[in-house]
Amino acid sequence: MPKKIIEALSDVMLRGAKPRAADYKLNDGRGLVLIVKPTGARLWRLRYVFAGKERMLALGEYPDVGLKVARERAAAARDLVAQGTDPVQHKREQVAQRVNAALQTFEVVAEEWIAKKAAAKKKRWTDGHLEQNRQSLRDYVYPRIGKRPIGALTAQDIVQVLTPIEQAGKLETLRRVRQRIGAVFAYAVQTGRRTDNPIRDIGGAFEAPERQHFASIKPADLSAFLTRLDAYQGHPSTKGIIRMILWTASRTGEIRGATWDEFDLDAGKWTVPAERMKKRRPHVVPLPPQAVAMLRELRDVNTDRLAFASPNSIDQMASENVVLQALKKMGYGGKLTGHGLRATVATGLEEMGFPVEIVKAQLSHAKDNLTDAAYLRGVHLERRTTMMRQWADWIDGKPGGKVVKMPARGAA
């Protein structure tokens, strides 16, 4: 009996395939069949042999998957078999990869990147810098693309994140957020979540911020500033941070992250650990009596670990914008920053006749040479203590310079 010749299917035959009481098959050849169900569903399947066993691969449902596409999928599956790969297993792995990719959102990868930085044995970031990175992503990036798979994001998505920041005129913020987005994508490439970094494709899409010195005021203008600070109805932590900048010339981030165990109030010293210092070396800060008195009062307000806790939560660090917001409410928006206030202190100390190297030591602008750094920490500490006491006394002589008693933590 001659072998029956199986005719290839056509679109006309497929459209005319009506349901029957039981399943039946329409054969296209080489294992590709269309199974017609009593319900009317028409399912593409490919029969193939792998490792000596017959298997069946689902290729989709007609008419969503037409004849041409079904044949292409069948051909691709046969190629996999020829290469020693089981198409069913390959399909399962692809599904798993898609599910995993959907779970690998920008926020998940970004938080993993930050956690890796925090856990690094050789810490290159201070706790304050870590928090700045996380907070800027939370403020500007997560609300727009945080829940989207990082592998699916494009340069255009990044442009849409950054455009509102540029429109608000926050060019320095834009620069930092753009840099941090790029770092997250670089980490995604390094860990196999992406093959490219789309931050490189936005080129000159945004205006670069002009390099400028931080806004500051002259020491002669401190009288007016101190009067406004005294009248400012801000949270004790916020006012305390500003006064600590004035009394110690420390960086805002160092003050915000200070914990009570770093202070020796009886000795009038504050030791900032190396991991929280920009230079990655511990820094001893002499505390004038005015700062000690303020800290003793503040301890009754912030009773948890953080000396300058967030106004919103006693166990969280105050945000990096807390000083800028306070200065804006005091009428110094665009005229003064925390960094600028440090510069004001430095200028005032130099105008009082203190040697530049002692002022730089107080600001932790020591040379990189370890011997020089040790010298500045040791021999200069006594001179810095005298200097900052005289400076605090000079501030005390200004209107608004004396600290008024702090309100309870619940104050605005």
Helicity level, as a percent range?
Answer: 40-55%
Low-pLDDT segments, ≥5 res: 1-5, 368-373, 403-412
From the 3D coordinates, which CATH architecture of the largest domain would you assign?
A: Orthogonal Bundle
Termini separation comes to 98 Å
Number of alpha- plus pi-helical segments: 16
Strand order of the largest sheet: 1-2-3-4
User: Count of DSSP E strands?
Assistant: 7
Q: Which range does the strand content fall in? A: 5-15%
CATH superfamily of the largest domain: Intergrase catalytic core
What is the helix/strand order?
HEEEEHHHHHHHHHHEEEHHHHH
Global outline: elongated
Largest sheet, strands/sense/barrel: 4 strands, antiparallel
Top CATH class of the largest domain: Mainly Alpha
Rg, Cα atoms, Å: 33 Å
Mean pLDDT, as a whole number? 85
Number of domains: 3
- What is the fold-level CATH name, i.e. the topology of the largest domain? hpI Integrase, Chain A
Structural class designation: alpha+beta
How are the SSEs ordered, and which strands pair?
Blueprint: H1 11-15, E1 24-29, E2 32-36, E3 42-50, E4 53-62, H2 67-82, H3 87-103, H4 106-119, H5 127-140, H6 142-145, H7 155-167, H8 171-190, H9 222-231, H10 236-248, H11 252-256, E5 263-264, E6 269-272, E7 283-286, H12 289-301, H13 322-332, H14 338-351, H15 356-362, H16 370-396
Antiparallel strand pairs: 1-2, 2-3, 3-4, 5-6, 6-7
Helix pairs in contact: 4-5, 4-8, 5-8, 7-8, 10-12, 10-14, 15-16
